[in-house]
Prior knowledge:
The protein is an alpha/beta fold. It is globular, with a radius of gyration of 25 Å. The longest helix is centred in the middle third of the chain and has 22 residues, at 299-320. Helices cover 39% and strands 23% of the residues. The strands form eight sheets. The protein has a five-stranded parallel sheet, with helices on both faces. A five-stranded mixed sheet has the order 12-13-14-15-16.
Amino acid sequence: MTHDPADNTLPRLLAHNARQHGADIALREKDRGIWNEMTWADYAENVTTCAAAFESMGVKPGDAVIIIGDNRVRLYIAMLAVSMLRAHAMPAYAGATLDELRHFVGEANVSAAVAEDQEQVDKLLELREAGDGSPAQIIYDDSRGLGEYTEPGLMAWETFLDKGHAALKGDPGLGERLVNAAKPDDPAVFMHSSGTTGKPKGIVLSHANLISGSRNAHAAGAFVEGEEVLAYLPMAWVGDYALTVGAAIVYRFTISVPERQETVQRDMREIAPSLYLAAPRTWDNMLTTIQVAIENSTPFKKRVYHFFMDRSIEAEKRKLKGEKPGMLDGLGHLLGEWLVFGPIKDQFGLTRLTSAFTGGEAIGEDTFVFYRGLGIALRQFYGQTETSAFSSLQAADEVQLHTVGKPLPGVEVEITEDGEIMFRSGSVFAGYYNNPEATAEALNDGWLSTGDAGYLEDDGHLVVLGRLSEVVYTAGGERYVPNYVENRLKFSPYIKDAAVSGAGRDELTAMVCIDFEAVGHWAEVNGVPYTSYGDLSQREEVAALLKLAFERVNNVLPETLKMHRYVSLPKEFDPDDGEITRTRKLRRKVVEERYSQVIEALYGGASEVHVKAEVTYETGETGFVERTLPIREV
Length: 634
């Protein structure tokens, strides 16, 4: 295993990997159908050359460099190079709006940017024109469509690297100085909070934070040295950086970058990763695809599938309840693996999976049990950007449906009197960037106030209920967390988003957004005609599906918290409309203001409500979806 002295940084560990394992493959990237490989030696050389180029262009400690686009090897290289200079690598979501980028520029001195392609370059040029001229330097990876651009400070990646080569040639000692310039407490990456209650806060994670987080997760059995990982998660999400850069360098993973987001599934099948992290929605979508394929197969295949799958799921449920396996469970799974489970896993690139995780929000019981029945040891983890992604994890032999496992080794946890989860660890950040008030609220003697409500069970497992700030009371004084109820509604594959109301009211109600893909598949299989999202969302047949989801959630809620009425909205909640964040967290105040007339109708005894909702199109133009919606009884 790699030796990790206390003064290590990611660039130093990268250099160590280049010296000790230089010929091993560190990165793969698919381009025009071909996987191009990069060794650890080449990886380290590219990062150092990139850092030299940035320095020659005037990027200095404390500056920020925006990294924007989908996952690309050069963008990962740029982030590490920026950290070498003790500057801030600031990844942005590929779909970031101009206002979001303006917020970034307002936080720090953005001296340069690295963009994936023409779309992102155009966005950065618009940002430059609308502001103070930042970023002055824009480097792009994909040159297609940019040949005729004459804007100052715009350059191709190859031209940019030439600057680095020239700087290294002119100063023989520069490379070693760059590798050793950053210290453990210097910035590795500049992330942002989700911004559910206001502007996103700047979160700078140090090299020490990320290395500590990787060690903690490794000690808990999250991964081993030499994992194969597909880098498809958004680069601006801490889970991606913690795995594909942090842990990948500390434990020498091989990282494969898909050709495009649209080809992720096909590329994953070719790579067959050993470690796979996905949000519950991704696991849900994969399950929907499997179920639709089975429904469209022959009657014989359907019978074989259900014979083995149904029995395996029941066996897994018994196992999770602590019951002993039946005499035929093992034999049934062996036959099922050969006839059903193996072919399904092969189709989705899951054949070599030894570490499978879900996080970000609660996952539905049916989805969770399905994958474990399929032979994938799916586990839940919990963490935040402020804790370098990982804080607690389910051990392979201690999986429980309602918990997120035990705190990782190296992580201390406390629950305050009002039920807030607190963490202390080397992976916890030092504070919000240039925001002493928010830092003082979040940190006390190294303890991070997570803002989440939860409790520890007698066996040490952590249960997360939802945001503490969202703990509200009904008119009768019943305490509940809307997010907890919403997540359980979203356990249904047919509900993509939900917003539950009930603060100061006699009962709970909800607004839901259907999952257009899942419900659309269901409608096609069942011969239900529709013309649009708005049309499908209001069909009586779909209302019956949604009613089942509400009834299922009501069955686990106390009598005083059961939901009685709901509305299916004619459009999805959209980050471009400000209703959810880029990580699909609900911006509750925005939603409650925008749909205030719906909420009043739900509690006013009306049978329908007229809605005029603003939508933002891909072009940036806005329009309206207007429809009269029936208010349905559960």
